[in-house]
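Researcher: We're teaching a course module on how sequence relates to structure. For the next exercise, students receive a sequence and then see the predicted structure as tokens, so they can try to spot secondary structure elements on their own. Here is the exercise chain.
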Amino acid sequence: MKLTRILATAGLMVALASGSAMATPSTQIWIPSTDVKGFKEVNIGVDNYIRFSDAANAGPNYYDLGVTAGVLPLENFKLELGVDYLTDNLGGNSTQAKHPIMFNFKAGIPEDAFGIKGMPAIAAGMYNIGTFDHGATGGNTMQNIAYGLVAKTFPVIGRISVGGYNGAEKQLGKKINNGVLASWDRSMPEISDKLWLAIDYMSGRNYNGALSVGGSWAFSKNTSLLVGVNVYNPGQSTLTGGKPTFTTQLDINF
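Model: And here is the predicted structure for the students to work with:
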């Protein structure tokens, strides 16, 4: 399928939906994964996060149209770059709506790289790299979250990933801007080769701390849809992630 046709389709779906609070690299459900796009591989993602509640403190819905591409022609060391149009759709009252462009990048080494059997996957990068900072008295979109992860796939159990992150204090809050990343994911061939399930967790009493559960279905080799739920960490009164969200994430690869 031609790039223009894919972009037009994805753009139409975003226009009809609302709802990701993060400008995403290759992810599990909410947190980054150790997966990195290979050379010339391109992903278009349409992510929606919709609140279960309409209470005043529920938080806004988010939607994100993102493009991620692999840029290194190497088998054992990969690099992907991404750009997202991320908005809460709140118009003039929202810094994010007025400055929706965000960037991300990730470098990684896959499992068993360099012929070393049993070697875990390793990845590091940054996401939610914003483009606007109005100074001490104004809004900004620069969460600038740096992270590192290791992952290992075990027979029967599936893949376990662990790591950590650190973001900008100005956006995520002083002394609450870092934490742990952890996830489990597994394809489910016992049911169908098209089904994949995951659970991930991001600690921290900031906007992004959350426990997420979901699964995806591959409709074709290049198209899949993930459906899940995000429950944001309690205990933070000012920078809370808000009420839980229902997420849908359409991925188109070519």
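Model: If you want an answer key for the exercise: The chain has one domain: 3-253. The longest helix spans residues 3-15.
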